[in-house]
Amino acid sequence: MKKIFLVDDLHANLAIGKEALNNLYKTYPLASSKAMFQLFANIVPDLILLDIQMPEMDGYETIKILKNHDIYTNIPVIFVSALVDEESINKCFELGAADYVQKPYDRTLLINKIEKHI
């Protein structure tokens, strides 16, 4: 079963994501980028769903670290965010995102985007 890290600081969003993907993928809900990097010691995901707006380390900073390390650089990152302005979305792609999904999202759309990149 493919492994997906769900990285979001809001517990409700992690619960929604886990519920949406639970029967299709092995999901790892993580409340911070720090928790994600700690889990990398034991598990390398097939894909990362990443929020932009988080305390301590936002999604932009997180993807910069991912794309600058050989171990992580080929893992597709899909941003899942409430930000809908063109500048924010363009920045995601400029930093190496595979895709972008707006919150709240349609489960079928999210799964289609995951399947496209996994």
Structure, described:
By secondary structure, this protein is α/β, with parallel strands linked by helices. The chain contains 5 helices and 5 strands, in the order βαβαβαβαβα. The protein has helices at residues 11-21, 33-39, 59-67, 86-94, 107-117, and strands at residues 3-7, 26-30, 47-50, 77-81, 99-102. It has a 5-stranded parallel sheet, sandwiched between helices. The longest helix is centred in the N-terminal third of the chain and has 11 residues, at 11-21. The chain is globular. The mean pLDDT is 95.
Topology of helices and strands:
Blueprint: E1 3-7, H1 11-21, E2 26-30, H2 33-39, E3 47-50, H3 59-67, E4 77-81, H4 86-94, E5 99-102, H5 107-117
Parallel strand pairs: 1-2, 1-3, 3-4, 4-5
SS content category? alpha/beta
Mean pLDDT: 95
Series of H and E elements: EHEHEHEHEH
- At the first level of CATH, the class is Alpha Beta
- The CATH superfamily name is Response regulator
Helix content: 25-40%
The CATH architecture would be 3-Layer(aba) Sandwich
Number of domains: 1
Strand order of the largest sheet: 2-1-3-4-5
User: Rg to the nearest angstrom?
Assistant: 13 Å
Question: How many strand elements?
Answer: 5
End-to-end C-alpha gap? 11 Å
Question: What proportion of the residues form beta strands (DSSP E)?
Answer: 15-25%
How many DSSP H or I helices?
Answer: 5
* Envelope shape: globular
Largest sheet, in brief, is:
5 strands, parallel
Write down the CATH topology. Rossmann fold
**Any low-confidence stretches, pLDDT <50, length ≥5?**
none
